[in-house]
Amino acid sequence: MPSLRRPSTARWRYGGNQGPIGGVTPPVTGVQVPVGSLRGDSSLLGGNAPLPDLTVQDGGSVQDPTLVPGQSADADLGLYLDLNSVEKPVPLRGSSGSATADGARTYQYEKLNPDLFAPPGTDAGSVPNAVWPMGLSHNRFGTGTRSGWARQQNTDVLPAATNMAGVDMKLAPHAYRELHWHTAAEWALVLRGCVRVAAINDESQTFTDDLCAGDVWFFPAGVPHSIQALADGVEFLLVFDQGDFDENGTFLVSEMFARTPTSVLAKNFDAPVDAFKDIPRGELYIFNGTPQPDDIRKQNVTGPAGAVAPAHAYTYHWSRQAPFETPGGTVKILDPTTFPAAAGFSAALVTVRPGAMREMHWHTSSDEWDYFLEGAGRATVYKAPDAGRTFDFTAGDVGYIPRAAAHYVENTGTEDLVFLEVLLAPKFTDISVAQWLALTPKQTVKDHLNLPDSLLDNLPKQKTILKQGNPNMTAVD
């Protein structure tokens, strides 16, 4: 006979979601037909109901919690906490956050975001969320057979990112992102594989080029273009200069033809109506294509106005640019100084060694849109006048930092941290906090911050960009 036991009504017991189905292990029901009532009665109202038995309580406190290295240190030190080393993290830092909890939780979120779960003591006030994992974005598949996919980040999922949005797109071998154009400008970094792009501008000049991992293209708003993967497929990152940009709102050649009367198409193209009987009746979006010739010259089309001149090229082979080397890592910058066509877009590709950090800085004229390509890191965002919050990032995350907000990016992992910094600016610039203080009269700084001479005399008068540090992130000194 099946058990008819009912769960205890005295208290609930729940913990981090670890079950195999949607994070929950469902119980096996012992009830064969509906029983009981959906609602209680007035006898349960306060004043009517008997008082609870306070001798039986369970506040969910964790007895003798396991702490990770650095968790007992002064909270203001803000040491990085590797919560992956414990099964059930607890929100403790030094003497702060002493109330533990064993409630409904998803431990993996807490382990990925230790600085939100157990924030440094220096965090204060309210700062808009600055991180969005692309892994939580809805993935839209192409219309072809395993032709590819795309997922996006915009203000729908990251409201603070008002000026820029991003799309991560994958095309299978020879697949197309169909001929299209946007109301936003499109800046792109090739992440994997190789791709052929083609465009025509409003001067009737044409452009075609092949790009591989590490290379960049840029198409101004309104310029129609095509994107086709080469033989091994391609993945690329798109950045748009509109925070509410929606990849699903792109102007498409297939839809333009489908929404135009056939008689008008015939008149426009000097062709019989029957010529349009096989046009697509809906968007192609991402679809399988015919393999292109390896020799790009066989696909170059040049009209009377000629091709786009190299000085105004829509592509830049950034993969071939040697990076600037520092003891803390490498940096290379791409902005209109060397890529004139990408007016208003500036970017830095930054590699931070373990224990090192992108120095404290801010940008004077633009928000900062980041994409984390490899490794793990964190940043504290200072918001005027007295708020600050620390965010954690891993590969596949988007970061967004408002204009003029001071911040750093610290490598918290054991491997290199690689991330892309994008600004809507005519030149990549920043204000270095260390250099600012070094170039300010010493006594002025001393009067403000009470810093010792030994520190002030060692301030760099040049930007260091990346700062070295101890790879042991829990070291106090």
UniProtKB/TrEMBL annotation:
Keywords associated with the record: Manganese, Metal-binding
Cofactor note: Binds 2 manganese ions per subunit.
Residues given in the record as Mn(2+) 2 binding sites: H361, H363, E368, H407
Residues holding Mn(2+) 1: H180, H182, E186, H225
A GO molecular-function descriptor: metal ion binding
PANTHER family attached to this UniProt entry: OXALATE-BINDING PROTEIN, SLL1358 PROTEIN
Protein name in UniProt: Bicupin, oxalate decarboxylase/oxidase
The organism of origin for this protein: Cordyceps militaris (strain CM01)
Classification of source organism: Eukaryota, Fungi, Dikarya, Ascomycota, Pezizomycotina
